[in-house]
Amino acid sequence: MPDLLAFLGDPTVLIVGAGAVLLGGVAGGLGAFAVLRRQSLLGDAMAHAALPGVVVGYLVSGERSAGPILAGALVSGLAAGLAALHLSRLPRIKSDAALGVSLSLGFALGVVLLTRVQGSAGGHQAGLEAYLFGQAAATLRGDLLWLAGAVVLCTATMVVAWRPAKLTTFDREYAAASQVRVRLVDALLTGVLALTIVLGLRMVGVVLMAALVVAPAVAARQWSSSLLGMVLGGAAIGAGSALSGALISASAPGLATGPLIVVVASAVAGVALLTSRRESQRA
Amino acid sequence: MSAHAAVPALELSGVSVSYGQTHAITDVDLSIPQGTLAAIVGPNGAGKSSLMKAVLGLTSATGDVKVLGKRAAAGRHLVAYVPQRRSVDWDFPATVLDVVLMGLYRELRWWRRIGRGERDRAMQALAEVGMADLARRQITKLSGGQQQRVFLARALVQDADLYLLDEPLAGVDAPSEAALMATLRNLVASGRTVVAVHHDLSTLQAHFDWLAFIHRKVIAAGPLTECLTLENLRSTYGTQLLAVPAVWEATHA
Lengths: 283, 253
Fold this sequence. Notes:
The complex is a heterodimer of chains A (283) and B (253).
Chain A: H1 2-9, H2 11-36, H3 40-61, H4 66-89, H5 95-119, H6 130-133, H7 141-160, H8 162-170, H9 172-177, H10 182-204, H11 209-223, H12 227-251, H13 257-275
Chain B: H1 3-6, E1 10-19, E2 22-32, E3 37-41, H2 48-56, E4 62-67, E5 70-71, H3 72-75, E6 79-82, H4 96-101, H5 116-128, H6 144-156, E7 162-166, H7 174-189, E8 193-197, H8 204-207, E9 210-215, E10 217-223, H9 224-227, H10 230-237, H11 244-252
Parallel strand pairs in B: 3-8, 3-9, 6-7, 7-8
Antiparallel strand pairs in B: 1-2, 1-4, 4-5, 9-10
Helix pairs in contact in B: 5-6, 6-7
């Protein structure tokens, strides 16, 4: 027991834990919308395509500071997401193909840039490979502020745009006929999702970040009977999964954080699916 | 007829909708009087849905649309829309009452909470379609006919002047069809206008009093008693519908 108390009293562990709760909470909450809007793959595309932005951000700033790297990741992730959305509106391209291409192309560019940087002098010290699978121990006090800011921004957005977001998610045509600006709602939800994904890259990594968005929401859907319940449930499950994954990883050096978090979240989703008595009736 | 009633509920002049090279409807002129229960009829791909989307501003269209004499945007708050029930995924976490309340979102600012008054209105609309006892049910557990009645209730709470319905009776069980039509007749009796895209020719005469035959343009439009002729059916459906004579005999027996 004293070991455990000492471990939990460690400031690094506290920062990691707080960061995980904030990130998992906001990702799981927004995940409800991503899942119901069938945009899980969009989140995955944005996460993978953020990698070139991470490397370019590092090259521009010349150091591992959060600001330029986050900005770079947000720009390239959003660019890929919007490109995929635009491509899928074209009549001759199916949306899964558009997303698949954006995802792979973005990730390929990122890996090319990453290997180039790591091959250069001093590049291997940049620690950029942590962005692939995530590294909770690398969470800094400054990251917490970014995460807290994102939580406030996402919550405020959802409070103000709750009804348009709900209506657009359930019935797009009726929303548009009711004078809801559907494209604006799409852009808003895509924007906050992209921001969340980018902020999670350091802890969970580009490869698995989308799972932290999707898995808690899938779990919450099995137990919830309202959209609000699904959003809050997803947030709670996301926060819990991220916290447990990050703490396990921080206590046992060498274990990548992202995979641990995703394994926990997916296990919860699996239990939810198995225990759900909800019968889904499809017309 | 009073001067007020002389203003058409819906008036389209020279309305065209195209998707790329495909012309869905071309140069449609149509004037539907107030207080009618009107059906828009035509074969698959005739542009019935496009016409409806043009009225609702859901697709870019050329030409002029007026609702009760008011142009597009100004007239749109007078319109309530009932989409095809198959256009949404019913596997969504919401109760029947939640969906009906969506009809009131347009009039609620974001900081206004949904209160007793809104719930009462939604319950009243549900009672009108005979679904009050299912208000708390999850929408994943509804039958097709119940889904359609929920959609109609959502439109009813908007208290609109013109109701636009896209195939409201498609795949709906007999009790639901009766409940839906009774509700629509009540609307018309209270001075509203109902316009429905409809595909079942055998029920035209039983359900509607006004008709517009559409096949990329208006073939014929007017009161059902004048408009439902074998000639109009033939020129709308051409060779597409071998059953036309059978329908004709069934409705004119």
